[in-house]
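Researcher: I'm comparing several assemblies side by side, and this is the next one on my list. It has 916 residues spread over three chains. Same procedure as the others: predict the full complex and return the structure.
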Amino acid sequence: MSPQLEVQLIAVIVATTCTLPGVFLVLRRMAMLSDAISHTVLLGIVLAYLISNSLTSPLLFIGAVAMGVITVWLVELVSGSRLVHEDSAIGLVFPALFALAVLLISRFAGNVHLDTDSVLLGELAFAPFDRIVFFGLDLPRALVGGIGTLILNLTLLLLFYKELKLVTFDPALAATLGFTPTLIHYGLMTSVSLTAVTAFDAVGSVLVVALMIAPPATAYLLTDRLPRMIVLSVAIGIAAALSGYWLARLFDVSIAGTMATMTGVAFLGTFLFAPRRGIVAQVRQQQINRERFALQMLTLHLLNHEGTGNAGVECHPHHLIEELRWPASFAVTIVRRAEQKGLVQRQGELLILTEQGRQFADAAIVA
Amino acid sequence: MEIAVDIQDLTVAYGDKPVLWDVDLQVPRGVLMAIIGPNGAGKTTLLKSTLGLVKPAAGSVRIFGKPYEQQRHLIAYVPQRSSVDWDFPTTVLDVVLMGRYGHLGWFRRPGRAERAAALAALEQVQMAEFAHRQIGQLSGGQQQRVFLARALAQDAEIYFMDEPFQGVDAVTERAIINILRDLRAAGKTVVVVHHDLQTVTEYFDQVALINVRRIAAGPVHDVFTEANLRATYGGRLALLETSRVAAPASSAAPAPGD
Amino acid sequence: MELFTDYTLRTVTIGAMLLGAISGFLGCFAVLRRQALLGDAMSHAALPGIALAFLLTGQRDPFILFVGAASAALLAALWLLVVVRTARIKDDAALALILAVFFGFGLVLLSYLQRQPNAAQAGLKSFLFGQAAALIERDLWAMLVVGVPALALVLIFWPQVKLVTFDPDFARSIGLPVRGFDVLLTVVIVAAIVIGIQTVGVVLMSAMLVAPAVAARQWTNRLETMVVLAAGFGALAAMAGAWLSTLGEGLATGPLIVLMMSLVTVLSLVFAPGRGLLWRNLRRRQVLQAS
């Protein structure tokens, strides 16, 4: 395989691996934990390195994953004291851990290739040059790691789909049914941690967050159903990854950065143009609603005041402008629409409800 | 009879779901009025749109004949307790002092006169000894009284309260209703979103029954009838005991989870 | 102490203390408004602004970079507001998304800059981790120019700011322009962020907003005291961090400041009388013994 192909393959696999746990992070409103974890895994790596004195020890990997889970535990410890709100707890814990990591690196590991830059930036372009031999195949390490994590995440997802779904949408019920939400929760966090560790060497912390959160958020604008959301997230993630790669090559800029940007572009596009929840669709729906709404208000108003003493005032079109706070042109339009639809009739200067209009008004209350 | 609050054709919607439809309500000066209705029926929304906290889709609110924006200094608001973070670093006295900010204007700081007014308000609700306590250290009833003191410090003509009796102990409840009666005796007008049907006839002069639309409003003895209650609560009532409602003699309480 | 006699060290120390004080003070409002992570997101989002400012002007002048950083951060805040209000994306996902996308775009710009034959751009990368050790006097002036008006605004409108933060509904009912104050407070926090990025970098900035405020809260129940304490803690931690970094090789100033600040916070959480965990534990034991 050519290096280019390998890089794209890695990108696709990383994108998929990240979006899977990301879906549940978004649904459980824990998105910022991905940001925290993706930064603190560095501390795990550093500590493990200092203990094992080797850059290839498996302890590094274990340490990183463990640190991710410890981060979550610490955040809950701090916010559980009830002295600190949860968002402040996150903003306290991860910078402290990250600062420690940076400090340790600069003090004890300054001349080792434990580049703090790569934590944040990653460089996918270099991935093909970091190879290992796996079952006789000569592959980029990132690819092996990525596939491994992908298989793990997929397996966990398939095995625990029911539990994940239940715990996400109804934790109380899950608890009464005997599923420990805490176990699932920490399982998810371990998965996130693992994914962050395998991914960031190639793409950096930031892209991990982008891939975990942006595609699921985008998918959430398109669908209500969990299976569809998962599939869409993966598709969007892959599309962003590939398009990001090609654009980065075109302009000779950071691959990870471009991929992250493309996830943002995908979100923006969906945010604007999604069929039901996009802005454009919402504006159109609002206009439709405004008319229906105004017709309802008109007929209800007439219903309220017909036959009463001051009907002569209340049922006059001018009154609409005053009391219903409608601009004159709007009032005219609505009255005309109402007449067109057979909801009201003119009786001299006043407006009166037709039978159809009365039914329309009644239906409005029920709805 | 002077009209303190005149609500005309008030319509409020969230998105395209109407919460209040074409509501008319006149609150005469000097009465204690309860606003009653099922949850989600628009009671709090009615209060909030009268105060300008929520923008109505249609309709108007006049306070003593003028638009409410011009009459803010005549209005006091006691929101629901759940609307603030009680861990906020501020003392009881500080909160009550905030009731004087409307009178202070932009660049003046609260001085001795304001502190005196705040302490007097705290005396009225029997919370003066808690003046320097942080608000999170209070019980539910005490917190409610602090909010009430803040409103009293505003020295207003009309008082709007959102479920002030919700979740308070009996002592606090008695204290609050006494203060409301004192206000009425002083010629003030009090409008209360009330949750407890059992106490309507005992506490209030007038009542407004709201369920998205205005079902009925007026003096308690005329309006607080079984028929009107059924119309408001949509038939989901449990008959409990007698003599709580104006004739015919049967009482009602809202079913939970409305 | 040579911290204050040596010119470079003095500049670094004063700069760090300014940051600590200003961000400690203003950070109280981020924490009280539950916007701690907004600070984090906005500081990450500032990166493309800084890169663009350099790209367009070619200068590493702090004022210009401040403008770039502030513009990007405010744009991010605005974008966040729009997304949360109109789509059904919740605020945490929106924050993470904006953080990662803006930052990613910043990385793109940085990598583009690396291709430029301009030596000064190397300094931009240190915005990621701060460049406390490289502060010069001009940077200090920039901090003051941005920080002092921000503080002044809060102090001038103190009663209103306090009320709007505590009870926005009540504030609105007495006629205060709550929306305007929301904007003011966001701008003021952006000012703190922009100052802080220079010293401790994008990633660690949120700690400088959050930690002093959290620490200060444990020692007092009054907002007036809290902001002063937070400023004090921030300045103290900054000074300690600056001093510690002189003690040996490879001791980066930014992380040291953050670590010192976190230490102060942990100590406050545990030992503060009245609220602290130790006190709470003792109290509980007293109650158990009494019964």
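Model: For your comparison table: Confidence is low (pLDDT under 50) at residues 239-258 of chain B.
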